[in-house]
DNA sequence: CTGACCACAAACATCTGCAC
DNA sequence: GTGCAGATGTTTGTGGTCAG
């Protein structure tokens, strides 16, 4: 075990309360618990790094957990009823960047897609997945998708009554320049091999992919044991083929906003989050990102 | 193991549109 | 013009990740 983690263990055991890395190091120096071999200008940052890594890597098996961002405590006290509940309630750290797609992503052959969609470039999801193409999927590493195949993206939209949740894309969220700083109402993610499981074979994990993306981006706390489908009403709606610059097969997933969920920009890293009334005419359609523009018609045609 | 890196939030500053 | 609110832009500090 790293000596920094030993120090944290000892201090937290002594104090019996959640502490920041800086507080732990300060206490450790007071108690002369820091071996002479450990040195540096910003040792609290090193301790913070060690704790973060340990939790990230070992998850539930780590001796540590977070009670708040930057506050660490010992897992063994989670069941100690003599301590305040706030000391014993773990939080999941917000990911800096949404998990990069390292695994393999879902693709279809362009010829198969063309055959089914033809000139219209759209289809209902039911028709699409119900057809034989639903059996002809492949998985590819992102960088090695052949020219004649197209990646599948799930686009989640959050619906409430006649409105859809919109926001402005931040600098970090999307590198593609015609997406940057645009207005949008989609939460997109490539559909991967990991999204597929025994229970979602009919839709190849597309709905789960969308629900995970929206829960991550909106920072909706979902326990590890919770089934995301119990939290959200989500249905796969429409399939759209984008032949443009970002060639992709887009799976539109509509998610009903749960009653209890009120998006507030305070907890979000998304700018200018707001409900867009679909029954009204929308100004500056050109200010939306290409995918939002594309599905706007689909959404509005319902109202 | 250290510390650089960088995504983010918070704090602060500036701009814009509107009422008076 | 001033005052205000909300949007937008900039700076700064912190937390999490990763190269070396």
Summary?
This protein is α+β, with helices and mostly antiparallel strands.
Describe this structure in words.
With 303 residues, this protein is an alpha+beta fold. It folds into two domains: 3-87; 104-300, Alpha-Beta Complex (Nucleoside Triphosphate Pyrophosphohydrolase), CATH 3.90.79. 26% of the residues lie in helices and 24% in strands. The chain contains eight helices and twelve strands. The strands form two sheets. Strands 3, 4, 5, 6, 7, 8, 9, 10, 11 and 12 form a ten-stranded mixed β-sheet that branches. The protein binds a DNA duplex (20 and 20 nucleotides) through helix 3. Pfam families: HARE-HTH. It comes from Devosia subaequoris.
Features:
10-stranded mixed β-sheet; two-stranded antiparallel ribbon; Nucleoside Triphosphate Pyrophosphohydrolase; alpha+beta; 12 strands; DNA-binding; 26% helix; 303 residues; HTH HARE-type domain-containing protein; transcription; elongated
Low-confidence blocks of residues: 94-101, 222-226, 265-269
Return the domain count. Answer: 2
**CATH class annotation of the largest domain:** Alpha Beta
Number of strands: 12
Mean pLDDT: 74
Derived from helix and strand composition plus strand pairing, the structural class reads alpha+beta
Largest sheet: 10 strands, mixed
Question: How far is the first residue's CA from the last residue's CA?
Answer: 60 Å
Contiguous helical run count = 8
The name of the CATH architecture of the largest domain is Alpha-Beta Complex
Helix proportion: 25-40%
Q: What does the overall shape look like? A: elongated
Protein name: HTH HARE-type domain-containing protein
Pfam family, one: HARE-HTH
Keywords: Transcription
Organism: Devosia subaequoris
